[in-house]
Amino acid sequence: MTAEVRLALAYLSRVAEPPCPELAKLVQQVGPVESAARVKAGKVDADLARRTEARREIDSAAEDLELLARRNGRLVTAQDDEWPLLSFTGFARMDHRQRPESHPPLALWVVGSARLDDMAQRAVAIVGTRACTAYGEHVAADLAAGLVERDVAVVSGGAYGIDGAAHRATLGTDGFTVAVLAGGIDVPYPSGHATLLHRIGQDGLVVSEYPPGVRPARHRFLTRNRLVAALSGATVVVEAGARSGAANTAAWARGLGRPVCAVPGPITSAASVGCHALLRDEANLVTRAADVVELIGRIGELAVDEERPDSLLDGLGEAEQRVYDALPARGRRTVDQIAVASGLAPIQVLGPLSMLEVCGLVSRVDGYWKLSRPKT
Amino acid sequence: MALGRAFSVAVRGLEGEIVEIEADITSGLPGVHLVGLPDTALQESRDRVRAAITNCGNDWPQSRLTLALSPATLPKMGSVYDLALACAVISAELKKEWPRLEKVILLGELALDGRVRPVKGVLPAVLTAKRQGWPTVVVPADNLREASLVDDIEVLGAQTLGQLQAWVAGKGELAERIETQAPVLVHATDLADVVGQTHAKYAVEVAAAGAHHLTLTGPPGVGKTMLAQRLPGLLPELSPAESLEVTAIHSVVGLLAADTPLITRPPFVAPHHTSTVAALVGGGTGMARPGAVSRAHRGVLFLDEYAEIGNSALEALRTPLEDGVIRLARRDGVAAYPARFQLVLAANPCPCAAPDSKDCLCASGARRRYLTKLSGPLLDRVDLRVEMHREKAQAFQAEAAESTELVRTRVHSARAAAAERWRPYGIRTNAEVSGVLLRREFRLSQEVTAPLRTAVDRGVLSLRGCDRTLRVAWTLADLAGRTSPGKEEVTTAMSFRQAGGVR
Asked: Which residues of A touch B460 (CB under 8 A)?
């Protein structure tokens, strides 16, 4: 990609509030350089003209790119190899009238060294409310750490609460995390997360479709959410209130055909109401990272069965249970006595006894059998 | 110048060799010269033969008499040649050549008055004569039943030397072959007599079905010996070929009953625990004679109080256990005796053998040493180990347990099934199956062997112990009439391993 093209795209990225399908169509038709020239000169059709009118005079592309370079960033566009084309194909199938923002971005402003498409191949979004509880924070961190263990990138929005917990846990376990911002990459939001975002930029990726200097605004968060959902294989909502941005991300994921997962919480917790609503709406109930990986992982990458609390007697067969119960808490018995007490034939008692002995539950003393430890 | 000739058989081990006996009378000072490596008993035969001949109304040559037993290099033992020596001398003295003497094997010891006394080893000798194509064998009348066990050869019984002489000259008759009826089986010992002790009783049944070796431990008086004695009753009858094998060994030892010589039941041999190596495996000067292991061939060798038996004696059992035969080299050659026996070991749990282990006075070290007497290689061959317990008084009220007869039918069908299965591999019983065969060709499913894997993982069973358990499991399956062991058989088989410790 030539510098001219890059400059043109940087200009176009700012000139219309993304996503702008009309602009994308023009770029596809005549190329970025020609499009930039036409937009600048106002020689475009009415729709596009209306959308670009306000900002077509502003051309800070050179400065923006310079700022980006200083921050060790780059502009990733559809012409680049690392453009995560596959992640964005889902938008084409969505109902554009109902969801006007359902379009791929024109370009992405990225800080960090990893390739976007590599990351998007195996990534999970962990999202949730900013007003999270200690439980949510714990679960988010736990999930993130578990995903890191299984080589999955954690995508989130860089906000307070669940987002931050997920990012921090990922960084803490040397994992790979991606923050998708709703403003320019030089505008850390929330400002309390400036350090965190800086660390993400160093060890992971900070991604935004807005050029530098753009302030995050309410509508931009909702637009940003579609990228969070698109860049990850599944979206996990850890905690969400009745009115939460996380529900919006989940809706995007569902629209894109990605699995939506929700972590259940206490039914009395306001922070889990959204999750429960999602679950009623047939979201996947997840409780551990392995459950999530099962949804996004390779074929056959299944979660191991949940550990169940087991008593010493759980693994025993029916005959073994009966023989075990036939032994007294104290004292010892001969095979014949055990046979009488258990109602099994004397010879059928021998096998279970030896199995119980192998398990360390009974022992043999002078030809008698007794329990190894008192019954509880 | 006169020469007489007769034939007899030298038995070495269980093998016989035809011995030609020549008597030569030449001029010279009167005297008897016996050549051909005779032993003491044979040297003395000069005097017996001389007395018998003269007492039967014959003359003893009044010149130099040379008696030669050939092959000359073969050492000859015992009194069995008396009859042949006497006939050769009479033939030489009377200068007559009787055609019958040329075609008969003579076996027997002479009394001074000319009576023919019984000897040992008649059966192997007659078998040799038959194998070498001799038409007739004359044996002492008392050995006639034993000799009659061999078919397709004329056997005759001589009462006295005079009677034999008359027969040889064609003037008299000898006792003809006696057909003995197979002895009617009477089980003096019945399994139903044993009170309680299900585990041990079952172990005896399994041992009988799979020919497994068995160890019984328990305090005195719980019935270890009683059970061991009942094992032969469960074993199938010996086949005709086996019977002859066993009878031949007993003939060599001289243990055959006069009236029913053929041994059709598996023998039960219980040597005392002070037995020496020689008594156990065989020995003796000159040519080794069979020991307890050979007498127990195709039967049961019961070693009571094995912990008191000398280590060297126990270790000497290793080769016969492995090979089923014992080769004993002595001055006069190597004797090979078959020794495929089933070993049953019994011992008290400790030297003091208190009725209740709580009252035991032994130091723990002594206790351990007592039962670890069996070395690894020996213990490896014992598939079944049972610890017996003292029965409470109420056990006497229990109804009669299964009889020997009932169990024996089960054992028979189990043995038949096992023999059928292992025939392609040249094996007859489960105890002989190698671990490799069990783990490769006859591998059981993962599910069935799961208990074994658990046991190995928990360190309570060694891999060798696995093989043992599998062998027993196959026997259990045979007893239950199944084609291959299931999980239940495998776990039950595991109950026959040593309590505590990895083995």
From this structure: 357-358
B-chain residues within 8 Å CB-CB of A356?
Answer: none
pLDDT above 60 (res B501)? no
Report the b/e string of A166-198 with b at 16+ CB within 10 A: bbbbbbeeebbbbbbbbbbbbbbbeeebeebbe
> If you average pLDDT over residues B4-17, what whole number do you get?
90
Contact status, residue B346 vs residue B304, Cβ threshold 8 Å = yes
- The string of pLDDT tens digits covering residues B471-485 is 999 999 999 999 999
Q: Which of A336, A353, A358 sits opposite B460 (nearest CB)?
A: A358
DSSP helix/strand/coil, B138: strand
Position B476, amino acid: L
The whole-number pLDDT of residue B186 equals 65
Residue linked to tokens 């990895």: B502
For residues B216 and B198, what is the distance between their CA atoms, to the nearest angstrom? 13
- Residue A94, CB half-sphere, CA atoms under 13 Å: how many? 23
Interface of B with A (CB under 8 A): 196, 198-199, 202, 217-219, 222, 349, 357, 386-391, 395, 398, 451, 454-455, 458, 460-461, 488-495, 497, 499-500
CB atoms within 10 A of CB B179: 8
Interface test with A, best of B224, B491, B494 (most A CBs within 10 A): B491
pLDDT band at B91 (very low <50, low <70, confident <90, very high): very high
* Angle in degrees, 0-180, between the axes of helices B224-234 and B404-422, rounded to the nearest 10: 60
Convert the pLDDT of each residue in A156-188 to its tens digit: 999 999 999 999 999 999 999 999 999 999 999
| Contact indicator for A166, A154 with CB cutoff of 8 Å | yes
The band of B185, judged by pLDDT with boundaries at 50, 70 and 90, is low
- Residues on chain A bordering chain B, Cβ-to-Cβ distance under 8 angstroms: 319, 334-336, 339, 346-348, 350-355, 357-360, 363-368
Residue that has been written with the tokens 């003796």 in this structure: B284
Minimal Cβ distance to A336: which of B198, B458, B488: B198
Task: Judge whether B201 and B388 are in contact, CB under 8 Å.
Answer: no
Mean pLDDT of A274-289: 93
Question: B57-67 as b/e, with b when 16 or more CB fall inside 10 Å?
Answer: ebeebeeebbb
Q: How far apart are CA A206 and CA A189, in angstroms?
A: 12
Interatomic CA distance for residues B247 and A295, integer angstroms: 78
Minimal Cβ distance to A368: which of B386, B389, B398: B389
Q: What is the ipTM of this complex?
A: 0.72
Residue of A nearest to B476 (CA): A347
CB pairs under 8 A between A and B: 82
